[in-house]
């Protein structure tokens, strides 16, 4: 399997090229965090500044020589670039440096390969890796343009390179079929939730913003959470109870990053559909991060790419425990709706405010009514209490009840449809 990668620990030379005309520059600090998340051991950090990329090596010939000397002196096993490289550039660099060269996309793919735990997650990572590899198949091989030969190995005039490409295409098609099956299963589960009128709230945000920690604190789950990039790949769903709303499904999803490779967005389409189909997005933001505003823009760009830009969202500014003068609070917009909540997922401060904001945003169709129940409607009375909808109750002389309720309008309509008729006062 392609997702079974080296466990890390390799000596790595980091190359951070800066293009003067590039408006969206990569963050060197984030680059080091990515390399650390991949498990490599950085032994040198080399920067390069140029007006535009060199067509052959991306960086200039002088800088290539500097990297080559560093590889020899430090006995590095891999050179990692903080930028996407073309297959030709990658191949030329490997020939000059005499070691493996990995670009930013390959680095992120490697981290994803290490983090995937579920069968679905591994399939998605392998699909992205195969699509990335298909453009780099000629790298490092000398026999690929020779036709097969020898007894039992004669082919129909097909070169080894063509054979490998054909096998890759067949494997990609096989994985896509299996992921389509997963997608249909998710659609079926989603339709079941819709029929049961259970809202879906999806956590999104920049990688390492604290989504999994927030998810664990909010839902009392035990999802893996760590201070590293892409700690979570596989989506997890949990049910919570929200005042006036009832049951709500919360989904923890993969984090986003600058220039998230398009192949990954496509491969993780089945997972990201939980975001597109959500009733509400909780955009988790690391309020202590100096790149906070830029990270928000990057997340919005990915939401636009997957078609989730129109889903209502709530900004959650996490990690207020790192700020000296910030207390948990809800900020409201001009229409009186919550748009931002300040919390600390680590300490648990502000969790009740998140539920309150969810209730206010999803509870626009909450109604109050007084129901007159007959003695034979004891099961309905019990269900109203189970839903937490009862505000007040009085017993009547004939054995019935007068119950004042506050609940979602669609829940009241569902109960009325089931009971045939509800007597209201």
- The average pLDDT value, as a whole number, equals 80
How helix-rich are the residues, as a percent range? 25-40%
Overall number of structural domains: 3
Which strand order does the major sheet show?
6-7-5-8-9-11-10
Shape: elongated
Q: What kind of sheet is the major sheet? A: 7 strands, mixed
CATH architecture tag of the largest domain: 3-Layer(aba) Sandwich
For the record, the CATH class of the largest domain is: Alpha Beta
| H/I helix tally | 13
Query: Which residue ranges are poorly predicted, with pLDDT under 50 across at least 5 consecutive positions?
Result: 1-8, 139-150
CATH overall fold name of the largest domain: Rossmann fold
The Rg value, from CA coordinates, equals 27 Å
Features:
alpha/beta; Rossmann fold; 3 domains; four-stranded parallel β-sheet; 13 helices; elongated
Molecular structure report:
Helices cover 40% and strands 22% of the residues. The protein is of the alpha/beta class and 425 residues long. It has three domains: 11-102, GTPase HflX, N-terminal domain (Rossmann fold), CATH 3.40.50; 196-362, Rossmann fold, CATH 3.40.50; 366-419. It has a seven-stranded mixed β-sheet with strand order 6-7-5-8-9-11-10, with helices on both faces. Helix 1 packs across helix 4 (104-115), helix 4 packs antiparallel against helix 5 (119-133) and helix 5 runs antiparallel to helix 6 (160-195). The N and C termini lie far apart (66 Å). The model is unreliable at 1-8 and 139-150 (pLDDT under 50).
